[in-house]
Amino acid sequence: VLSRGHKLGPSPHSGQQSSPAMVHQIRRPLLRVALAASCGGCALLRLASPPTSFSLFRGGAAAPPLLRMLRARSSVAAAAGSGGGGVVEDGQVVSIDFELKRSDTGEVMDKSDANGPLTFTVGAMEVFPKLDAGVKGMSVGEERAVDLGDDSFGQPDKEKVVEFPLDKLPEGVQQGVQLQMQGPQGPMIATVAEVGESTAILDLNHPMAGIPLVMQVKVLSTELAPTVEVDTTSPGDGATYPKAGDKLTMHYTGTLADTGAKFDSSRDRGQPFEFTIGVGQVIKGWDVGVMKMSLGERATLRIPSSMGYGERGAGGAIPPNADLVFDVELLKIN
């Protein structure tokens, strides 16, 4: 089922989960959402902007522009990169200035000048593997050209060119338009190759598949990454743990760490919360912390703001830069 909207989460009042499926026309097919759309179940899919009202699901009422999915994470982590020094290593939050170019034509695809630096956790699969490896060992202030090769977005595959009902696409869609669609593991980008009377041919290959890329980077800062504390209050089976792509059923109660004020509870509604782990549907603190729980376990997750809703908060429920505490129970793993 496909719809033109982009509402990944439930209303903060209804307690009902809307369908995550969608088709959304892309206006500027550049790097940031393109990265996420290429990544499958990796952590890039966790980088959408926080919602304007509280929801455990990530994503707001409209799909973010292409260049902003990683920048949303960057703005959250930028404060951590104001100082620091030393050499970039796994487990650190690194902030870089960059310019991404096609290595065959020299065309600039994206750069940090206009929208600020790119910030990510090294070794956490939040960026291209070759970029992740390329910054390791660099010092603050150092510059380097990182060759990303021609496979960062995969290679073109004829099997990914498919026929699709025209009435399931945005009205008036034309050849050459790019659409953002919700796939089984997060956003996908589709290019309209042909438009017929009742069907359209969609190319589900990434628009940058097979394109050789090089990124000029400069390390601005580096600092140890924040972590989630998981305190078990009632043990699980100790054997069955979630993995990325599993659908989980959980109960939770969320409170603000500094005041203890409760902002949401599935227990109060009498309705467990269902989501897919490891694909960015929920805040990063959940994706990381819940992975450490076994089936049947009840635990307290202590989540720093940078792994929650960051400097934007979530409407009136969660203020900016708020650390969070969740009392969670893992009921089912599907």
Detailed description of the structure:
Helices cover 10% and strands 32% of the residues. By secondary structure, the chain is mainly beta. The longest helix is centred in the first third of the chain and has 9 residues, at 69-77.
Quick tags:
334 residues; 10% helix; 6-stranded antiparallel beta sheet; mainly beta; 32% strand; single chain; 5-stranded antiparallel beta sheet
Stretches where pLDDT is under 50 for at least 5 consecutive residues are 1-22, 26-54, 58-84
Counting helices, strands and paired strands, the structural category is mainly beta
Overall mean pLDDT: 77
Cα radius of gyration in angstroms:
20 Å
For the sheet with most strands, the description reads: 6 strands, antiparallel
Order of helices and strands: EHHEEEHEEEEEEEEEHEHEE
Strand share of the residues? 25-35%
Q: Can you count the beta strands?
A: 16
What is the helix tally? 5
Approximate shape: globular
Helical amount among residues, as a percent range?
Answer: 10-25%
Question: Which secondary structure elements does this structure contain, and how are they paired or packed?
Answer:
Layout: E1 23-26, H1 31-38, H2 69-77, E2 92-102, E3 108-111, E4 118-121, H3 129-135, E5 143-149, E6 161-165, E7 178-183, E8 186-195, E9 199-203, E10 213-224, E11 229-234, E12 247-256, E13 262-265, H4 266-269, E14 273-276, H5 284-289, E15 298-303, E16 324-333
